[in-house]
Amino acid sequence: MSDDILKVGIADLKVAKRETGIITYALGSCIGICLLDPLPKIAGMVHIMLPETNAGRVDNIAKYATTGIPALIKQMSAAGANPARMKAKIAGGAQMFKMTQSSAIGEIGKRNQQKVKEVLAAFNIPIIAEDCGANYARTLVFYRESGIAEVRSYDRGVKKI
Fold first, then answer.
1. Over the chain, what is the mean pLDDT?
2. 100 DSSP assignment
3. Active-site amino acid positions
4. Bridge partners, 7 (sequence order)
5. Whole-angstrom distance, CA of residue 105 vs CA of residue 24
6. pTM for this structure?
7. In this predicted model, what pLDDT tens digit does every residue of 100-140 receive, in sequence order?
8. Which of 64, 74, 140, 157 is 20 to 30 A removed from 94 (C-alpha atoms)?
9. Beta bridge partners of 16
């Protein structure tokens, strides 16, 4: 992996202005959200774990879809991006654990997907590609210049979205 690719940890976010791209690992039920303003070619990624905060307490803004996505948009805007031009690509939201009954834990990937889509829609940011669901983990690489996202999985190879 190139040295000029930013690494986004779990419950983390980064903005790339000059770097080649951004990568995040361990997207099980978590979702990686890639945003790009294609005019100045400013890209950002947030790796959210949960759909929303619990009782309004925020220990880490990047942990939640409802706080992480707005924080990413704000940081990208401060770097020169325009939210009106932003497009999104998302990956993750898997059901990693088989539950015998419907449970909050078993449905977290699906709930993350729903909340991410709601928040992006509230900002009028279209999702132009996604690779979500199923039952396997993903690594997500987003290339700033081309806007291509690569979704890598252990036994499924590389999928470009």
1. 92
2. S
3. 30
4. 23
5. 22
6. 0.92
7. 555 556 589 999 999 999 999 999 999 999 999 999 999 99
8. 74
9. 43
